[in-house]
Every structure is written in structure tokens, then in C-alpha cells.
Amino acid sequence: MSDTQVLPAAIDPVARPARRSEWRAAYFGTPGNALTTLVCGAVILLIAKLAFGWLFLDAVFDGGADACKQSSGACWPFLADKLRYMLFGFYPFEEQWRPLVALCLFLGACCVSMVPRVWGRGLLLAWALVILPVLYVLMAGGIFGLTAVPTSKWGGLPLSFMLSFVGLAFALPLGIGLALARASHLPAIRVLGVGFIELVRGVPLISILFMAAVMLPLFMPDGVTIDKLLRAQVAIILFAAAYIAEIVRGGLQDVPTGQYEAGRALGLHYWQVMFKIVLPQALKKVIPALVSLFIAFFQDTTLVTIIGLLDFLDTVRTALRDPDWQGIAVLEGYVFAAAVYFVFSALMGAYSRFLERHFNTSYR
Amino acid sequence: MKRKFLALCAATAALMVGATAAQSATTLETVKARGKLICGVSLSTPGFAAADDKGRMQGFDADICRSIAAAVFGDPDKVDFVLTNINTRFQALQSGEIDVLSRQTTATFSREASLGIDFGPTVFYDGQGLLVPKSLGVASAKELTDAAICTLPGTTTSQNLTDFFRTVGGKFELVVFESPDENRAAFYSGRCEAISSDRSDLASIRAVANNPDDYVLLPETISKEPLAPAVRQNDSNWRDIVSWSVYMLMAAEEKGIIQANVDEMAKSEDPEIQRMLGGADELGKMLGLDNKWGYNIVKGVGNYAEVFDRNLGEKTKLGMTRGPNTQWNAGGLLYAPPVR
């Protein structure tokens, strides 16, 4: 293009063009734009047509593996047969209402907790004293007439959520603590913070899980075993904390020193300055980075397969290996897993954008 | 804040730490006190250990676990399965996380000698083989020249191939895939001329081909893979229980005792059958088990042939033949010592 285009005054890239004329200018303003729009539209239509054909027109809705083998479309009977296994893994079949209730309760509680108006000490206490214990009792059983289900049988989507969300819930305060330690003026604390963060960030998650699964039990006295799930959970917490600490440190460095000094000049204690002045500003700035990390961790929990726990992606994978379906429904399984991960990751992303708008921190 | 967090951590840990048993307790005492057998199986190997649609563990290895549970408790379902993978299986046994490892594990000298474990009797005689498309026109592995061979990662698999082709003076190119799905897809798409794995595994790979008849399993078995359950070293009572639970499956087949006729057979006049099913002598007591332990095994899971046919046999998708896993008097390798 020869002449320089002057963009219309669209300052906020998040906002969509509102009026029809703006819309037309954005998509068909120049021949180049029009061409791009047409090509993209054609590609999207083509993909949509293929996907629709695969999902519905050519798909198999009845019958078994043999019907699917003959067809080129999606194999819905596979999903129908394997859905409960993929969602809940080895959890006893008759008791699977429990992880289902736990999952719904968890997601419901998350939805409520997302509303800024309910934030506060009460919400934190509700999670710590009511929601998490109830979830634990539902999953583990053993009291109130619920059959005990050992953690070795937990699996699927509840396990994915538990490892990632509980992990991050505990890792966040720990990570903030580590970030403060790293920024501390006391050398001993700073060295501890730096040492922990660099040590953990210097090794891959998979090797930390391996340490927790393979090495730790060998150091324990004979006959004493720590629950495998707990070991994995602690490993994930420690790992996530180191990364959160570095993100939070970035936020802390972005807060002008004057804020801290002003707080101290007012006679506030270190913790008061941190919790009332510095951290609120720092955390606001790092919301996008934190959410990216959360999404990454939600997907990274899949690594626990190496220590013999099956999270959602792993239950899908193992379902694919069923001899009745092996080699027939591979695409279906992975598309289903991708769809589930996509929905939750997209929701987290959307919530992150909402938070940014709520705090009005974006693009400032 | 931090203290609260630590306290919470400690509380959770206290909640979930299970001190299984004191050092002095034998495995049998531990298992009985717990009320369940904990058995390590593989994550997902159809036919050996894999979840069915209801998330129930099924397979040959799983049924070995069930037979031990039946021997100890009289109930084949008193068993919890713990998923172990290749890297964590022995450690899980050493640390006491599982009572017995029944996971397609090859019994070898160095494992028995150096890992602090003891192997029970071989439950499945396997060996590495090669699967090729019929169109290749090869009848023996010796005719494979400069072939690309698809495998999964694993030192023994490639080592066996190297050894084999060195002895026959051939060359090959190894193509390694991380996941079984990719490995299989690569073979079917023609990336490799042959695919190599344990013969039991190759049978299941062949079973899912669009047309299984287009592929042939070459006759050579290039390694010995006797798959056996394993227990912690120095607990001979527990090892006896595991060994004889397996032998009981084999002996029951030899004597023609099946799940359906075990009640009739219990009235048999044959003294050995009487001893096996608890009608005569008190053999169970010698192991610290109920005298009906043998009866409970057969009643709970059937005999060896039933376990094999149910999980691996020709009526399943895997469609394996018994091969060397036949009774000694039919030319196979299964040979249970006498129950007396």
C-alpha cells in the first residue's frame, strides 16, 4: 500500500466497532481489508461446513464400534459409552453422583466467588471451612454413611480441577509470600526466597512430581506412606508458588517506591503498607499474567499421569485404548477433551478480561 | 497469613497421611487388618489391566490380583487397584504403597537380585515379535533388510532388535514413538515396514487394523518375557500366598475345575481336588489362610483358562491364542507343582 492509512480514533483495542459504518470501515474499508475479510470468511465457512458434516451429517449416532469403523464422521456412541469413565475415571460407578455433585458445587461456588461484591474475609472462610471440607467429604467419603473411596480411585475432571485450582489457591498466598521475601531488605529471608524460587524454577514440573512420587517414599520410615495424591498436590503447590512469586515480583517492582515510603511516613507497619497499599496495586497489574499461568496449570495437571494418577486428559486417553474402540475414536476423544479444556480456559480468560475492566487497569 | 497456611497444610497432611502398619507386621497381617488387598497394575493395557465403561478394572493382571484377594478374603472384589507406570512400579512395591505388583513385568535376574523384590511364578509367557504387512512378502524376520521398525521407547525393545539383527547379520532403522496411538498410526500409514513389541501387544495392534488379515505376525520370538507378579523381598509367607494363588489357577485348569462346576467338584473323590478345594487336610492354615482358599479363588475368578479366555483369548478383540501359555500336558509351559 502506497499511502499511509490514518486509523480512526479507535483507542481501546478491546472495544468492538459499534456502529454499522465503523463496522464496514473495519472489515471492508480498503481493497486489502475486503480481500482479507472475504478470504477469512471463506475459510471459516469451509471449516464450519467440514466440522458440521463431521459432527452431525456423517456422524454415527447408533450402533457400536463397527458402525463407527465404516463411517468417516464423528462416533457419538463412543462418547456415550465412555463419558462417565472419561469424566470420573476409576471412581466407583454407583458412587459417581458424588464427584458429579462435588464438581457442580465447586463450579457453582467458583461462579459465586467470581462476583466482586461477595469478596471478603467471609468468602475466604466459607471456602476454607465449608466448601473445601464438603468437597473433600463428598469425594473421600468414610463418614455420614458415604462409602470410603481411596484417593487412588479419584480421577478425571474432578481430579484436574482439584489439582489445579486447589493447587493454585494454596500457591497464591505462598507465592505472594515468596515475592515479598525476595523483595525483602533482610538478607536471610531474601536468600531463602531467591533460593527456593530459583531452585524450583530450575527444574521441570515433571521432575518435581517424580521426586514426590519416587524419591520421597524411599526416605519415609517403613510402613509409612503419604497419600500419592497429596504428594502430587504439594508438588504442584510448590511449583506454582515459585512462578506466581516471580509474576508478583514483577508487579511489586512496578509500584513506585514512593508508595511504600509514603505508607511508612504515615506510620503504617510493613505488613499494613504491603497489604493495604502496595500489594493491591501490584496484583492488579499482574492479573493477565496470573490468569495465563492459571490456564497453563489447569492443563499441566495432565503430567500427573507419570505418577499413576489419571486426570481428565489421561482418562480420555486410556478410554481410547479400550480394545473395543482402539484406533476408531481417537479424533473423537481428543476433540472432546479439547472442547472441555477450551470451555474452561476460555471462561478463565473471559473472567480475566472482566477483572481488568473491573479494576480498570488495562491499557493504562 | 503464612502461619495459617502452614497450619492448614499440616492439618491436611495429618488428615491424609496413612500410617499403614508398624514395621514388624507381615504383609498378610497388614492386608488382613486393612481389609483390602492393594494391587499395582498398569495404567491402561487392554487385556491386562484397563478400565471398562464403568471404570472397573478388567484384565488378566487385574484377575491375578482378584485371585489373591479371593485367597485371602474369600472375596475377589476386596482389592484396590493402584495405577503404576514403568518408572514407579518397583518403588511403589518397595515403599509399601502396594502389596503386590501385577503389571506385565518381566522377571529378570537383575530385578530379582538387586531391587529388593521377589517374583512369583510366571503367569504369562511373552516375547518380543514383529508384525509386518502381508504385502511386504516376508515370511521371516531374517528376510527383513534395511527395514524401518516402529517401536515405543524402552531400552530392552531396541536392545533385543539390535541383538537379533546382529546375530542374523541384518540392518534396521529404529523409529521411536512416544505414544502407542502414534506408533500404531505410523505403522498403518506405512512409515515403517514393521512394528515390534511384545507379541501380546502386537496381537492387539493387529486386532484394530481395518483389515487384520492384511498383517502377519512373524514367527520369530526375539526375546523371552516371562511376565510375573512381584512382592517385597523377605516375606516368604506372602510370596507363598501369591505364588500358590497363581498355581491354583493353573492346577484348577489341569483338574478341569471351572467357576461353574466348583461346587460339584468340591464333592469329588479325587484326593488332590479335595486338598485344593479345602475338603481334606488343612493346607490353607499352613499359609495363614482360610482352608477354602482354593475354592474361593476358582469360585471368584475361575481357572487359568477362564481368566485367559475372558481377557485375552480368541473371543476377545485381542484374539490371542494360548501359545506357550498352555498346560504342560498339552505341550505348553504351565506347570503347577502338586497341591499336597
| End-to-end distance of chain B | 67 Å
Order of helices and strands of chain A: HHHHHHEHHHEHHHHEHH
| CATH architecture descriptor text of the largest domain in chain B | 3-Layer(aba) Sandwich
How far apart are the first and last residues' alpha carbons of chain A, in Å?
31 Å
Q: What is the CATH topology descriptor of the largest domain in chain B?
A: D-Maltodextrin-Binding Protein, domain 2
Radius of gyration of chain A: 25 Å
Which CATH architecture of the largest domain in chain A? Orthogonal Bundle
Largest sheet, spatial ordering of strands of chain A: 1-3
Helix/strand/pairing category of chain B:
alpha/beta
What is the CATH superfamily classification of the largest domain in chain A?
Answer: MetI-like
Structural domains of chain A: how many: 2
The largest sheet of chain B, given as strand count, sense and whether it forms a barrel, is:
5 strands, mixed
Oligomer: heterodimer
CATH class label of the largest domain in chain B: Alpha Beta
Biggest interface goes to: A-B, 58 and 57 residues
Number of helical elements of chain B: 14
Structural class of chain A: mainly alpha
CATH superfamily of the largest domain in chain B: Periplasmic binding protein-like II
Extract low-pLDDT stretches of chain B.
11-23
Q: Which CATH class of the largest domain in chain A applies here?
A: Mainly Alpha
Family (chain B): Belongs to the bacterial solute-binding protein 3 family.
Organism (chain B): Aminobacter anthyllidis
Keywords (chain B): Signal, Transport
Domain Solute-binding protein family 3/N-terminal (chain B): 36-265
Detailed description of the structure:
- The complex is a heterodimer of chains A (364) and B (340).
- By secondary structure, chain A is an all-alpha fold.
- Chain A is built from 15 helices and three strands.
- Chain A folds into two domains: 57 residues; 206 residues, MetI-like (MetI-like fold, Orthogonal Bundle).
- Chain A has a two-stranded parallel ribbon.
- The longest helix of chain A has 30 residues.
- Helices cover 39% and strands 16% of the residues of chain B.
- Chain B has 340 residues and is of the alpha/beta class.
- In chain B, α3 packs across α9 and α3 packs antiparallel against α13.
- β2 of chain A pairs antiparallel with β1 of chain B, so a sheet runs across the interface.
- Chain A: One of its GO terms (biological process) is amino acid transport.
- Chain A: Belongs to the binding-protein-dependent transport system permease family. HisMQ subfamily.
- Chain A: Its main location: membrane.
- Chain A: Pfam families: BPD_transp_1.
